[in-house]
Amino acid sequence: MRHLLAALFVVTFMALPWIRVEGLPFVRFELHTGHYFLLGKVLPASSLINVVLLVLGAALSLGLVSSLWGRLWCGYACPQGLFVDLGVRALERFWEGPALARARLARTRSSFSKWTRRAGLQGSLLFLSAAFAFGVIAYFADPALLLQARGGSLASLWAVGALIAVLAYVDAAVLRHRFCTTLCPYARLQALLVDEGTRQIGYDFTRGEPRGRGAEKGDCIDCQACVRVCPTGIDIRQGVGQLECVNCARCLDVCEGVMTTLGRPKGLIRYDTEGGFQGVPQKRGFHFRPRPFLYASALALVLGGGAFRFAAMPSVQASVVNITPNGFVREGTRVKNLLRVRISNLSGRPATFSLRLSPETPPTVRIDYASPWGVLLPGESAETTVLVSKEALAAQTALVHFVLEAREDATLVGQFSALFSGPASSSTRMR
Ligand code: SF4
Ligand code: SF4
């Protein structure tokens, strides 16, 4: 089950950049063009709040999962862990056999067969690292385009990919689970994330002790199988929530095998609370715990806010800045403002926008000149300058309302406002 879920994560991770919804990427962050896509929708390039919500949502989800099930993330979904467990270990087994055969191979003298296997393994690890790096950079550019072009604006992305490949190779060849125990910051946050109600992998002391074989002993026969399979080399019997435990459940699987062979009940190593492992009776079903409640409440707020923003996202977004020296100029009977208007096409289809004043704008205001925008692709932004003038005799300030319309689609409209600057005011604002 664990391996199935892990494999599903890997396939999803590699496949997501290739998936499109109505022609738009399901998820992509094109930093080099400023185009961002999520769930097949275009996100405003400058929307910092969306990025903050995304990061906050991910952090709170991790906090909630950790407070309920400990380091479930490490065992089932961490890219580094899956890279090592499903990729590196599998290749190692393929080239050099299971653990005993590998130990034997390490002790044998140099031979053609030994070095062929070693070279095969290192070559495969290099290929795996390159594939992983490509999987990462495919989230930042069209993967099909990446495969065709390595120069131009994609050159820097390929350079980042090469760096990721080198780091991944070092991880595959040298670090592996040492990364989890020495470099990963998440492991060090566990004390803040879990509480006495968190269900984690652990060893049942009341049932297992005293260890050994014999009528007077507990269920643990001290066979050391759980220690031998542990990728980080720890003994689960030394306590729940050890810093080095990456929740891989290998000790659990192997101990279940031992218990089955001995004809004893499974669960000597299992998921349970700290109290459960000490033999303290645990409440069944739902019971209130402040830590998960706080994480869940904060996550609900962030998700709700994100969903609201997502649903209310406009099809076209505009920002406007008054670039007239001193705020305005006077020409004959009129006062003029020169505006720089930047629009972003968030509609998901190409569009050519034009600008007009909305009927709410005072009739004394008119657009003297607006340089046209070209066709904007989904996610693309462009700037133009707009000269707006107003009768000098009328009130000096006025709120000017603009309407953006797409030539190709009458339903594709957007609105924005700017405060016309006269002798009494020089500010500009968006609605
Ligand atoms: S695998 Fe089970 S029985 Fe063997 S040492 Fe570990 S806990 Fe004890
Ligand atoms: S103690 Fe068990 S679950 Fe933890 S890392 Fe070792 S084998 Fe995996």
Which molecules other than protein and nucleic acid are bound?
iron/sulfur cluster
Amino- and carboxy-terminal Cα gap: 52 Å
Radius of gyration: 31 Å
Specify the structural class: alpha+beta
Domain count: the total is 3
Number of strand segments: 15
- Helix content bin: 40-55%
Low-confidence stretches: 425-431
Beta-strand portion reads 15-25%
The biggest beta sheet is recorded as: 5 strands, antiparallel
Shape: elongated
Average of pLDDT: 86
Describe the structure.
- There is one protein chain.
- This protein has helices at 2-15, 48-69, 72-76, 79-96, 99-107, 112-137, 143-148, 155-175, 178-182, 185-188, 190-193, 205-208, 225-229, 250-262, 274-277, 290-311; strands at 20-21, 24-25, 27-30, 35-38, 41-43, 200-203, 269-272, 316-322, 329-331, 334-345, 353-357, 365-370, 381-391, 398-406, 413-420.
- It has 431 residues and is an alpha+beta fold.
- The protein has three domains: 2-46 and 78-188, no CATH class; 196-277, no CATH class; 316-420, Immunoglobulin-like (Sandwich), CATH 2.60.40.10.
- The strands form five sheets. Strands 8, 9, 10, 12 and 13 form a five-stranded antiparallel sheet that branches. The chain has a three-stranded antiparallel sheet with strand order 3-4-5, with no helix packed on it. Strands 11-14-15 form a three-stranded antiparallel sheet, with no helix packed on it.
- Helix 2 packs antiparallel against helix 16.
- Mean pLDDT is 86; it is low at 425-431.
- Bound molecules: iron/sulfur cluster (SF4) (2 copies).
- One iron/sulfur cluster (SF4) binds at residues 203, 208, 220-226, 237, 254-255, 258, 268-269.
